[in-house]
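Chapter summary example.
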Amino acid sequence: MLLKIRNLQLKKRKGFTMLELMAVLGILAVLLALAWGFGDGDEYSRDIATKEDMKTIIGGIKLYQSMSVGGSVPANLGELVNGLSAEQSKSGRAIPSFVDNQTWTNDSSTFRDHWDETYIYDPSGRTLTSNNNGGDPIIMTF
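The structure predicted for these 142 residues follows.
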């Protein structure tokens, strides 16, 4: 008899209670918020890595400038990899390289950011720019 009453109670129940629906909506909202927040993680990490690389390149430019005769900046980024000859160096000794080109390039003249785009180096304006894959450009001065 008790089993029949229990079965009748279960059969009468149709649909979900308001509390159950609100709980499901709350869980979905939390999952959506988490997914939304992680969507730009890859772009954010590329942005940060590119900025750090640009700081390293600018450090190499400043070192080149401090060690070259006349205090000039390199005419192109390839000169950071090629270094200074004994005639160009204040010390009178050749300096092989100011940065490790393996990080940014396969050759000694083109430096690439984390979107595989070439950095724009302007020695006269003293800027280094990454176009950030069509996003807001990252511009650093030295």
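To summarize the output: The chain has four helices and three strands.
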